[in-house]
Write the structure tokens for this entry.
Amino acid sequence: MAADSHSNRVAVMATNDDASASKLSCVKKGYMRDDYVNLFVRRPVRRSPIINRGYFARWAAFRKLLFQFLQSEANTDENSCTKKQILSLGAGFDTTYFQLQDEGKAPHLYVELDFKEVTSKKAALIETCSQLRDKVGATASISRERGEVLDDHYKLLPVDLRDIQRLDDVITLANMDPSLPTFIIAECVLIYLDPDSSRAIVGWASKTFSTAIFFLYEQIHPDDAFGQQMIRNLEVKFF
């Protein structure tokens, strides 16, 4: 791997820590509830009010669309329920799966993908923290070395999203059914990739899943008050 590619990869992974800290700041101010994000933050920070409000808007928009997907039903007979699955690209330390478990809204299958450096840390936390471990099945296979958690209804797997062939392999390993309704999450992910890679990922998703919703949330207004504050936060952290 070239030096500049490696440094970019490290910088992108560091945004995961920044996002988790911002979410915790939002939680502490009472904008939203998340009983798990504190487990992933080593150094809590206090964000400015505009950042707290921005993260709340992001969280609220995501949950509204996700719940619409989970609560909708296809034309099935009265005694059956449509199985649904969620695929989170570049999931980082997101805690949505654990929240859905508490709320009784978890789908048939929830799959999270990210760089191995990230999934290894997350797998280690799931393995050692009972609050997280209890949310995956008792027979789940957890390997921090491989960066994997394999349960019947939850999968955490390492992959570089730019490797489309590997994405196919990972989906097979996760036992995802391309014919099932699928909610695909790309939350502040594609903006860190080059345009060709972003197009390839969206194209892959459209070809792989016959019935899917692609949830995309990206930073697109760097010149408004929220964008300017976010840039200042990242400049302090990375430069």
In short: Helices lie at 3-28, 49-71, 96-103, 116-128, 130-133, 164-173, 195-208, 225-238.
